[in-house]
Amino acid sequence: MPRAVAGPEIERLIQLLARLPGLGPRSARRAALALVKKKDLLLVPLANAMSVAADRIVTCSVCGNVDTSDPCIICTDPTRDGRTIVVVEDVSDLWALERAAAINARYHVLGGTLSPLDGVGPEDLTIDQLVGRCSGGDVSEVIIAVNATVDGQATAHVITDRLAGLPVKVSRLAHGVPVGGELDYLDEGTLSAAIRARTPF
Questions:
Q1: Which residues contact 84 (CB under 8 A, 6 or more apart)?
Q2: 146 located within any domain
Q3: Exposed/middle/buried for residue 114 (C-beta within 10 Å: 0-12, 13-18, 19+)
Q4: Alpha helices in 117-179 (DSSP H)
Q5: What CATH number is given to the structural domain containing 184?
Q6: First to last CA, the chain
Q7: What is the DSSP letter of 80?
Q8: Fewer C-beta neighbours within 10 Å, C or N terminus of the chain?
Q9: pLDDT digits (tens, 9 = 90+) for 122-161
Q10: Considering the domain boundaries, does residue 1 fall inside one?
Q11: Residues near 61 by Cβ (< 8 Å), separated by ≥ 6?
């Protein structure tokens, strides 16, 4: 077991940073050292920003996005096409599509995908809430923008079955999204092309 190189407070910072996606123990140590070296420029403002975020960030009760207001800024934007809902697995996918500025619609975050091996069934996702949003007659199209994985496609089929009796067109992302690919790792051009070339499901 490696020996501690700093006090418990800094070691705790390193351990927490190492839990972030894309940061292993070595990267976490480098990040912690950068924060400590630039305490006034980085560490203190970051700590303040995280404290404010922890107090104010909520999950949107309509779409599942994270924001500082409920409903979120996307759900309350009057310039968005409220008749189109883009269904995504996670908030990171929503943000990826927004970065690409591929579509000016509303969203629905499922909170994951079906995964029988992990014990994740339809009741663990927000599929029922999606059906409820589509039942009011205000939605004309649902674009299923889940990852092109086995679990993602299984989830897409369940959503399609649940929406079958409603007067909504169901489409999915098409060209540009590789099988096994994840939306958060795709570039904006690929995402834009996939939205424009969506096909009926």
A1: 103, 105, 106, 139, 140, 141, 142, 143
A2: yes
A3: buried
A4: 127-134, 150-163
A5: 3.40.1360.10
A6: 53
A7: S
A8: N
A9: 999 999 999 999 998 899 999 999 987 889 989 999 999 9
A10: no
A11: 70, 71
Amino acid at position 64, single letter: G
DSSP string, 13-31: HHHHHTTSTT--HHHHHHH
Q: What predicted TM-score, i.e. pTM, was given to this entire model? A: 0.77
Task: Quote the domain boundaries for residue 45.
Answer: 8-56
Residue 137: how many CB atoms within 10 A of its CB?
Answer: 9
Clarify whether residues 82 and 172 are in a common domain.
yes
User: Are 169 and 140 in contact, with CB atoms under 8 Å apart?
Assistant: yes
Residue 42: CB atoms within 10 A of its CB come to 14
Q: How many residues does the chain have?
A: 201
* 47 and 72 together in one domain: no
The reply to whether 123 and 39 lie within a common domain is no
